[in-house]
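fyi for ur records
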Amino acid sequence: MNVRKIARRAQAGFTLIELMIVVAIIGILAAIAIPQYQTYVAKSQVTRVVAEAGAIKSAVEACILDGKLAVGDPATLATNCDPQATGSNIQGAGTTGNAAPTITALPSGTDVPNVTWGSASTPTTIVATFGNSAAQVLKTKTVTWTRDIAGTWTCKTGADAKFAPVSCPFSAT
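which gave:
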């Protein structure tokens, strides 16, 4: 009979201390992994918006070279430019940017950058604002592509430096 009791005890399973150690290890791993993951998500969203806003640079450049210095439907007015920006679900702070395509409507819940046309003495800018679907630390931050008078494009972001890609560094202004 003692052999049966010993055999039953051997099959009893994990002890409480073993379970507590496993829970502690999982807690430590989660405490390290969650902030790293949130940083990764924010960095990828900044990189994505830099690319999305930068994608309309060539259309804006072509419009500038053609003398079309207002956003709008070219069929309505010959001097209008339609950058044909595609909507993004992480852009937008409640107002739609003016680079929206004038031929087709934007999908619901998306937004596009805002283009400000320069002159002989002021730069042209493309500004994308992070909206409510972006990571919490990015909401209302901006990515700005600026074309100087010489025609050179530069990028700056208002997102924290740790989220900014090398091609678009942090700028407080």
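DSSP finds three helices and six strands in the chain. thats all i got for now
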